[in-house]
Specification:
Blueprint lengths: L1 H11 L7 E2 L7 H8 L6 E9 L4 E7 L3 E2 L1 H8 L2 E3 L2 H8 L16 E5 L7 E4 L6 E2 L2 E2 H8 L3 E2 L2 E2 L5
Parallel strand pairs: 2-7, 3-6, 6-10
Antiparallel strand pairs: 1-8, 2-3, 2-5, 4-11, 7-9
Length: about 160
Amino acid sequence: MSIESVRREFAERGLDIPIIELETSTATVELAARAHGVAPGRIAKTLAFRKSDGEVFMLVTSGDSRIDNQAFKKTFGKGKMLDAAQVEALTGHPVGGVSPFGLATPLQVYLDTSLQQWDEVMPAAGGIHTAIRIQVSRLAALLGEQWVSVTQAPAAD
C-alpha cells in the first residue's frame, strides 16, 4: 500500500507530518478541495512526465493551474505525461493519490511556481483518500528547492 511508503519515508527522515485519511475520495482536485474545505489551488497535484530522452520526473503544481505547453517545452524539452499504469509502476502510488514522497523509484521532483501563491498546500499521501497539510516553504525544502515555471493560471470565469 503506497500510503505506507509515505509513512516509511516520513519516519526514516524524522518528519512529523500527519497523514490525513478520509472516507471520501480525494482522487481529483475538485473532490479533494471539497473534502478538505479548501480552494482547488491549495490542492497540490503531483504529475509524472517522460522527456524525449527517456528521463522520468515529477512535477508538483497548484491544483487549479494547467500546463503551459510552450513553457514546459522551453524548460524540459519535448515530453509527455505518463499513463496511469506507468505512474503507478514508477511511483508506487495510484493516479489520484500520487505523492512526491514515498516514491517506489527515485525521481527528480520539480515544484511549479504556481504553488508560491499559497502559504500551505495539500498534496496526496499515496492513496486516493489521503493528503498532508504542509507549508509550501517546507515542501520545497524537503523536495530540494527545484523551482520551475511551466503552468498557466486558470482562466477567469
